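Page 42, continued from yesterday. The earlier attempt failed because a stray header line got pasted into the input along with the sequence. Redoing it now with the clean sequence only.
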Amino acid sequence: MNTDQRDASLLGRTSPTRRRLVVVPVLAVLLGSVAALGIPGPVASAAGAPPKPVYYLALGDSMAAGTGASTTATRYVNVLYQHEVGRFPTLQLDNIACGGATTTSMIDGPGCSYATGTQLGDAEAFLRAHPKQVAFVTIDIGANNVDGCQVGETISPSCVADGLAHITSELPQILSGLQDAYPGVAVYGMTYYDPFLGEWLDGSAGQTVAQQSESLVLDLNALLTQVDTAAGAATADPATLFQTTDFALTGTYLGATEPQNVADVCNWTLFCSDGGNIHPNDTGHALVAQAFEEVIDGLSVSTSPLPTATVKQTYSGALTAVGGHPAYHWSLAPGSGALPPGLRLRSNGTFAGRPTASGVYPFTARVVDTRLKITDAPAADQTTATLSLTVQT
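This time it went through. Structure tokens are written below.
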């Protein structure tokens, strides 16, 4: 998550090594029970043979590699792995993240020791070697493109612009490479919290840096989410769990009242307690894992009220889903009430047409995600929700 030099000093060596956790496959799985729960479970390769393992491939920078965590078990990748074993009983973890990684180094190097020479190359090779066996991929990348842009008590706009430009051109290449190696693989990116909010504690100059950095992180996260979405990847959102934009004086750090986002960063990372170390502590790693869990595990429909429509006017409301794996496919559920006359629901969740009659129209929407089949279990997650659309004259 930081530069190679900072990561090397934090890890106490010149080049972080690959971190792997291999879990012995479960020898017996009650497939009927798994199927009944709707969990994609492994299928035995032959009668009486143990089921094939499925894999979680972790990619990214020093945060994915575990820097800041006190033990291997408290690294966010490992916390997430332990959680997902409940859904994928033969899940194995392959973590090839590298401290100091940027979007550039993932593609071209240098970096950690990889058989192909680069992190992306090894990831692609792993995906090709395990068809129909990869449950999901997580990737945190992009912070190192910009987190070296603070110079003293200022942030260099040109440095930030250059870092974002590299993300704009290179992250799509990374995501495309993963999809080419394993078409339809479920990939989950993430937003970043803002460690430099901790500068707030250094007085007025530090508070200026904190506010500038918050703006930078918002731009970074918007870009990461945009690129993920365009590539069909979902985005976990640690930035929201860290309350990155909340400057309200409702937080507490070392007994003092601080802005909520500042207190969260100081309490959940090492920045304020360890000389500007930007990495999460065990609590922060757990929150990053939670952000991924929320996206990977659940698909739900937002039940926020839809905007009111007006008779004979084009309606611009849209349905939204959270979690699962985009892109989503929308339809009316069997037995649903009718939409207002003149309107129809498009498969992307938007509405077409102009309503011709006023009233309140309850209906049940169905959304299906595009999780790739890794076994003979159903390939997609789906859910429904009952909503209503009001049409005024």
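Notes: The chain has twelve helices and 18 strands.
Reminder to self: strip header lines before submitting.
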